[in-house]
Design a protein that fits this description.
It is built from 11 helices and 12 strands. By secondary structure, the chain is of the alpha/beta class.
């Protein structure tokens, strides 16, 4: 791992879940790189393995999930040591020292993540007390300052209020405050704009971009919306059935999508710059059961370009232009 420009690198990650007698292959041979001070978008339909990949980084998988193979390499600083997160125990001291302080996560639903019986201030304070030894007066001042930076009006008063007194957008800002209070090097945002209206979505995305630019924080943004990727990300990894099928700089992916699934995603949602006369199209078929063990390209049943070669094995990842990688026989990927 080259640490100067890379803060996190995932190599050949495989994650499985036991559900009764079934074995669900949630993540299959995933490779990802997060560059310092940049935002990587992970995009795909529900159930494609986006959140499982993120939870694997912080060892937050449920008891029936396990990392079967692969490496998760984290270098907090360009000169610092590389830590292999996949080997850490999920409740061990090593990962707890990283979780929340060096790598923080914003979860999908602020309604469920915030405790209704504790004040906003006390919930943000909890993360600060866990990782930093500050006097309460100093900690409170730091929290109020951050709430103000996040655009929460009257932060001194809001500090003493409860979650039910906040709107959905304000609750999401509180979740960002909890994640950012220890100035983490890497922020993982799992569908941070879910259930928010379009105006609030834009505010939250701009806020995250400002935090990235002001503090140099690297970001992993998980979403199902290519429009959000276009607006907020520097690089993107497209996932389908637990695999990264295409990855690269956002501009290259949008201007020259190579995988049929990426093209289908781009046709299914409005994105910035799209002409008003372009008709949106749904993706044919549905995502297969994740417990099915494919012996060939998983997208083949839904792909309009599928051939006998696609039914005969998995395509290898191939670089079609600098930094732009695709897994597809149609684009010249040989069988793996």
């Amino acid at each position: 791992m080259e640490t100067k420009n890379t803060i996190l690198q995932i190599e050949n990650l495989k994650v499985e879940f036991r559900v009764g007698k079934k074995c669900v292959h949630a993540v299959n041979d995933v490779n990802l790189t997060v560059h310092r001070g940049k935002t990587l978008g992970i995009v795909g339909e529900s159930g494609c393995g986006k959140s499982v990949t993120a939870h694997s980084i912080l060892k937050l998988l449920p008891q029936n999930g396990r990392i079967v193979d692969g490496k998760i390499l984290f270098a907090e600083t360009a000169e610092g040591p590389v830590k292999e997160l996949q080997n850490m125990k999920r409740t061990g001291q090593e990962i707890r020292a990283i979780r929340g302080q060096k790598i923080a996560m914003i979860f999908q639903d602020p309604m469920m993540s915030l405790n209704p019986v504790y004040t906003i201030g006390s919930q943000i304070m909890e993360n600060l007390k866990l990782h930093e030894k500050l006097e309460e007066r100093e900690a409170k001042a730091r929290i109020i300052h951050l709430l103000g930076q996040l655009g929460i009006p009257e932060p001194e008063q809001r500090y003493k209020e409860y979650p039910h007194q906040f709107s959905g957008g304000m609750k999401q800002r509180v979740m960002i405050a909890i994640a950012m209070i220890c100035n983490p090097s890497l922020l993982i945002a799992d569908e941070p704009t879910t259930a928010l209206d379009v105006t609030i979505q834009k505010q939250i995305l701009r806020l995250m971009q400002k935090l990235r630019d002001d503090f140099g924080t690297s970001v992993i943004l998980i979403t199902h919306n290519m429009g959000i990727v276009a607006e907020a990300c520097d690089e993107v990894a497209v996932m389908y059935m637990g695999r990264v099928v295409e990855s690269g700089p956002v501009r290259q992916i949008f201007e020259n999508p190579q995988h049929p699934y990426t093209r289908a995603l781009l046709r299914s949602v409005p994105v910035p710059g799209m002409r008003s006369d372009v008709e949106l199209k749904s993706i044919e078929g549905s995502t297969p059961d994740a417990s099915i063990q494919f012996d060939h390209c998983e997208f083949e049943p839904r792909c309009e370009y599928a051939s006998e070669q696609c039914r005969g094995g998995f395509p290898q990842a191939r670089e079609c232009e600098p930094g732009h990688v695709v897994r597809c026989f149609l684009r010249g990927g040989g069988e793996s």
